[in-house]
């Protein structure tokens, strides 16, 4: 994958993660059940996440993060779908790709 294409994917993923724009956000039941304060902290930490490296971001797409919130290990992950949401997107660098960011407890995966 070329550098420009990876940079476009990373920028679109960052936009969704940081602003909530450019896709859909889903939250697992376990994370929601932890309460409003937990979710507020989870969102804040996810939006400011910047600890990407070759171990957790080998394709440089910024599509996954793992962290600890209020003592609980949590993940967030971005997946790519076509416009119909029937199958995976052919080209995640296309802004028309439907991005779905899922936030949840590590124990739910």
Explained architecture:
The chain has 109 residues and is an alpha+beta fold. It has one domain. Helices cover 32% and strands 27% of the residues. The chain has three helices and four strands. The chain has helices at 3-19, 29-33, 36-48, and strands at 23-27, 64-69, 72-81, 98-105. The chain has a four-stranded mixed beta sheet with strand order 1-4-3-2. The longest helix is centred in the first third of the chain and has 17 residues, at 3-19. The chain is globular and about 40 Å long. The model has no long low-confidence stretch (mean pLDDT 96).
Q: What is the percentage of strand-forming residues?
A: 25-35%
Low-confidence stretches: none
Shape: globular
What is the overall pLDDT average? 96
Order of strands side by side in the largest beta sheet? Answer: 1-4-3-2
Number of domains: 1
Q: Give the % helix.
A: 25-40%
Q: Radius of gyration, Cα only, in angstroms?
A: 14 Å
Please report the number of helical segments. 3
Q: Which class do the helix and strand fractions yield?
A: alpha+beta
Give the termini distance in whole angstroms: 28 Å
Secondary structure: number of strands:
4
Question: Major sheet: size, sense and barrel closure?
Answer: 4 strands, mixed
Element-level helix/strand string: HEHHEEE
